[in-house]
Amino acid sequence: MTEHERYLFDLRGYLVVENALGPEEVQAANAALDQHWDQVRPRARESSLSGGSEALRGEKGRLEAALQLLRLAKPWCEPFRQMLAHPRIVPYLHDLIGTGFRLDHGPGLIAMEQGCEGHVLHGGSEPYDPSQFYIHKNGRMYNGLTVVSWQLTEVRPGDGGFCCIPGSHKGNVACPPDIKRWEAHRDCVVQVAAPAGSAVIFTEALTHGTLPWRGQGQRRSILYKMSPGFLAYGGVPAFPQDFLDELTPNQRAVLTPPFRPNRPVVEV
Ligand SMILES: O=C(O)CCC(=O)C(=O)O
């Protein structure tokens, strides 16, 4: 990470890394999604994420798929396997989380089109959650659960989608519920615009959520939730050996269950 990136992540709790994927990688990931689009559905009404907020409500839920993206038939799984230990992003995760970072859960699709509801803001440094932390010690950052959100379509200013309260990963006071519902002090909430191919990296210690989608086109984000190698937030899936055998050593390192001594690390 550059000095500027370190400063901005520490200040804001997120970073937009542009051109993390090249146009061909974006195209391949979108083609894989297109191939399986019949399995993408709006989230059910009873599982609405807008938290009763009038400001975040929509005509339908965000679009999701119960697809195991890493285990799609070839070649469709390839773009998502590459994102596990993508050389453009690994140096960021080493600086933010540490070597030995692991995939905690995901990858998962968040897609949105006009009329999709938002997601009430959640997370934040207070109340403290030891699995979703941000601290700066020993001259470096340490993050708990950290998200790499790959943008497969452009997000323009005003479109909606991912939003956050910059700096809230270091806050000392719990976020009031009406701010989380985007009903008060909207000026502290930032909508994060990013070109297709960007990776938005953020700590789950940041208060964040989703604004209703107003964009002309579709939003397509693929979220990988990474943790330090010694920590588990979600479950610890047992991957079948025949699947692991197909991966590169770097990809396998990211799927290693949580433990600390002599952990395999991604080589850069
Ligand atoms: O990307 C988004 O719209 C929100 C993601 C989110 O809330 C999360 O990862 O916890």
CATH superfamily: q2cbj1_9rhob like domain
Count of alpha and pi helical runs: 7
Q: Give the mean pLDDT.
A: 97
Strand elements, count: 13
Beta-strand share of residues? 15-25%
CATH top level is: Mainly Beta
- The residue ranges in which pLDDT falls below 50 over 5 or more consecutive positions are none
Query: In the CATH hierarchy, what is the architecture at level 2?
Result: Sandwich
Radius of gyration: 18 Å
Q: Ions, cofactors, ligands: which are bound?
A: 2-oxoglutaric acid
Overall structural domain count? 1
| Category by helix and strand content | alpha+beta
Give the terminus-to-terminus CA distance.
Answer: 14 Å
How is the biggest beta sheet arranged?
5 strands, antiparallel
Strand order of the largest sheet: 1-11-8-13-4
Q: What is the string of helix and strand elements?
A: HEHEEHHEEEEEEHEEEEHH
CATH third-level topology: Jelly Rolls
What does the model show?
This protein has 268 residues and is an alpha+beta fold. It has one domain: Jelly Rolls (Sandwich). It is built from seven helices and 13 strands. A five-stranded antiparallel beta sheet has the order 1-11-8-13-4. The protein has a four-stranded antiparallel beta sheet with strand order 5-12-9-10, with no helix packed on it. A two-stranded antiparallel sheet has the order 2-3. β6 and β7 form a beta hairpin. It starts with a helix and ends in a 14-residue tail after the last helix. The mean pLDDT is 97. The site of 2-oxoglutaric acid has 11 residues, from β8, β9, β12 and β13.
